[in-house]
């Protein structure tokens, strides 16, 4: 699905590349495929903002995780600081994806 793009910094998969791949595989225009990608990602974002997990079978699960406050250290000064409690998005790959990555 992802082709190497030498112009892309760090070889990230972009929304544009996703739309191009959909366009090539399905035969729809790139502008329609860009709308599909944006709609899909917006749906994922809204689901997570409601606090609901997203399970994509054979891929993995995205969820919101609470992180407690904790002590940390400023790497520049060595000063001890308190890192505030917060929420973060967590991804847990499916067993199948984990196995394929670790082959």
Word description of this protein:
The protein has 103 residues and is of the alpha+beta class. The chain is built from three helices and five strands; from the N terminus they run H-H-E-E-E-E-E-H. A hairpin with a 6-residue loop joins strand 3 (70-73) and strand 4. The longest helix has 20 residues, at 30-49. The radius of gyration is 19 Å and the shape is elongated.
How is the secondary structure organized here?
Elements: H1 15-26, H2 30-49, E1 54-56, E2 60-67, E3 70-73, E4 80-83, E5 86-93, H3 95-101
Antiparallel strand pairs: 1-2, 2-5, 3-4
Helix pairs in contact: 1-2
Average pLDDT = 91
CATH homolog superfamily of the largest domain? IHF-like DNA-binding proteins
Rg is: 19 Å
Annotated CATH architecture of the largest domain = Irregular
Give me some keywords for this one.
103 residues; 38% helix; three-stranded antiparallel beta sheet; 3 helices; 5 strands; elongated; HU Protein, Chain A
Please sum up the structure shown:
With 103 residues, the chain is α+β, with helices and mostly antiparallel strands. The protein has 3 helices and 5 strands; from the N terminus they run ααβββββα.
